[in-house]
Each structure stands twice: as C-alpha cells, then as structure tokens.
C-alpha cells in the first residue's frame, strides 16, 4: 500500500505551522518518514501525526529536529509557541478524544461536571450565561450539553471518576428545587458499575488543583490527555510531563476525598438542608 501524506494546513495555528515546516525540512533533506524516525527518538507514525498537527511533539524532540536539519534552534523556538498555544480547535479535539476515552477522571471546583448535570441545572446555568438569548437558543444549547451524556449509556461506557469540591454542592444553581433534584441525581451516580463520585470537604484546605477544573482522558492504548477549562476557554495538554503533573495532583486529591458511602451521606445532608 502506498503511503499518502496527510493534508497540511499551516495557516490554522502554530501547531499546524510546526508540522508543515517539519515536512518542508524533511522533504528538502530527502528524508522519508522512516528515515527520519531512524535519526530521532520518534516513530514513523508519530512523526506523521506531528506533521498533520494531530499530535504535538514531545519535549526534547524539537532539539533533535534542529540537530538533524541544522536549523539553529528553529524548531526549539517554535515548540515554545506550540506548547503554550490555546488552539481554536481544542474544544472540538477535546470532544473527539472524550468520545474515544476508556477512562475519564474529573475534578470540579464550582459546578457539577457536564456528564452529571440535570436538564434544569444546565438550563439555569445557560440562562445566566446568555440572558439575552431566546428560549429556543437556550434549549438548543442545553440539548447539545446533555447529548454528551449518551457516552455513559453506551454498551461499552468509559470508567468515570469524579471529585467534587464541597463548593459544588453548596451553591444552589437554579434555586432550591433545581439543586435538590441535581443533588439527588448525584447520589444515584455516587457508586455505579462505571461511575464513582467523591466529595472533597472544605476542611481539607488548600490543594494543587484549587480554583481549577480538570479532566483526564485516557485512551485504550494508555495515552492520557489533560484538559483544563475556564469560563470561556479550555486548554488541552498532551505532552507527558504536564499531563503527569495533573495525574499526580488528581491521585493525591482522590486519596483525601470522602469514599462513595460517605459522599452519598454528605450530599444527602446538603440536600436536606436546602430551604423549601
């Protein structure tokens, strides 16, 4: 079978420019992917993915490209841009990775994660976020958010692990009735064959993930991606060092969170304390 190189789109982002420039230098040097793989610590398939911006180069590889092509630090400097770039296509890529993940681990500091939100909870959030939108526009946004939950209802759903900061439970989104229904739904998800929910109480104090929202998505081959999200943007991390830092922080936090049985009791106590 003849290898067909993937299409290049260098104008989309620094990541895409990096891949296109790598192919240009490779072709100018009359290197095949296999030949370049013999010169640097990277497989032929991964090099192909880097050229088409499906993967970012791991730390240290850019220095190897500069050595092979004698480019005087060009790829090393370009990697500095690539590794810090918030890509316009990151959210779409995040969703694509989510659809293939076998394990999803989440830490939420302020809001119930999307995969566990009730319809009324989502509606309250989106109505506050887009107060001038028509009801139909809000409904479409709600439907799009809830459609992601189908992933947990497939014949082969991912394992889903969630750590909720106590603050998630204390803010009554949508009022008492909406929040009571949301908390009840969380109790149902605390310990199922595929989902585990744990609460991190306020009395734990400070920790490495405080103030952030983190998702860790692990594919069938063991590759793990980290995704951090703010109000209107998200950052997808793929390089091993940064992902491992988040994995370590998550694992440490999970060891301090309440076990599922105590989590269910804790959520129930918060629900019962809500005003009528």
Describe how the helices and strands are arranged.
Blueprint: H1 14-28, H2 33-37, H3 44-51, H4 61-69, H5 74-84, H6 90-100, E1 103-108, H7 119-129, H8 135-147, E2 159-165, H9 166-170, H10 176-189, E3 195-200, E4 214-218, E5 224-229, E6 234-237, H11 240-256, H12 260-273
Parallel strand pairs: 1-2, 2-3
Antiparallel strand pairs: 1-4, 4-5, 5-6
Helix pairs in contact: 1-5, 4-5, 7-8, 10-12
InterPro entries: Cro/C1-type_HTH, DUF5753, Lambda_DNA-bd_dom_sf
Protein name: Helix-turn-helix transcriptional regulator
Domain DUF5753: 91-268
Explain what you see:
The structure is a single chain. This protein has about 280 residues and is of the alpha/beta class. It folds into 2 domains: about 15-85, lambda repressor-like DNA-binding domains (434 Repressor (Amino-terminal Domain), Orthogonal Bundle); about 90-275, 2-Layer Sandwich (Endonuclease, Chain A). Helices cover about 50% and strands about 10% of the residues. It is built from 12 helices and 6 strands. A 6-stranded mixed β-sheet has the order 3-2-1-4-5-6, with helices on both faces. A hairpin with a 5-residue loop joins strand 4 and strand 5 (about 225-230). The longest helix has 17 residues, at about 240-255. The radius of gyration is 22 Å and the shape is elongated. The termini are far apart. It comes from Streptomyces johnsoniae.
């Amino acid at each position: 079978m003849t290898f067909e190189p993937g299409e290049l789109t260098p104008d989309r982002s620094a990541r895409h420019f990096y891949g296109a420039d790598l192919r240009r230098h490779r072709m100018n040097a009359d290197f095949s992917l296999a030949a370049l793989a013999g010169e640097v610590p990277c497989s032929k398939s991964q090099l192909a993915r880097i050229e088409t911006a499906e993967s970012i180069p791991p730390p240290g590889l850019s220095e190897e490209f500069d050595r092979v092509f004698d480019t005087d630090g060009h790829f090393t400097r370009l990697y500095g841009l690539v590794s810090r770039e918030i890509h316009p296509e990151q959210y779409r890529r995040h969703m694509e990775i989510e659809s293939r993940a076998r394990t999803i681990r989440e830490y939420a500091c302020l809001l119930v994660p999307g995969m566990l939100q009730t319809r009324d909870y989502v509606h309250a959030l989106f109505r506050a976020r887009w107060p001038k939108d028509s009801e139909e526009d809000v409904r479409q946004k709600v439907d799009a958010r809830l459609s992601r939950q189908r992933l947990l209802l497939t014949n082969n759903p991912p394992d889903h692990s969630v750590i909720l900061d106590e603050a998630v439970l204390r803010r009554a989104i949508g009022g008492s009735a909406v929040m009571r229904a949301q908390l009840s739904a969380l109790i149902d998800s605390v310990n199922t064959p595929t989902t585990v929910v744990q609460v991190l109480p306020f009395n734990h104090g400070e920790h490495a993930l405080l103030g952030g929202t983190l998702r860790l998505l692990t594919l069938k081959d063991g590759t793990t991606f980290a995704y951090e999200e703010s109000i209107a943007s998200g950052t997808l991390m793929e390089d091993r060092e940064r992902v491992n830092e988040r994995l370590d922080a998550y694992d440490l936090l999970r060891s301090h969170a309440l076990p599922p049985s105590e989590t269910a009791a804790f959520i129930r106590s918060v629900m019962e304390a809500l005003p009528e």
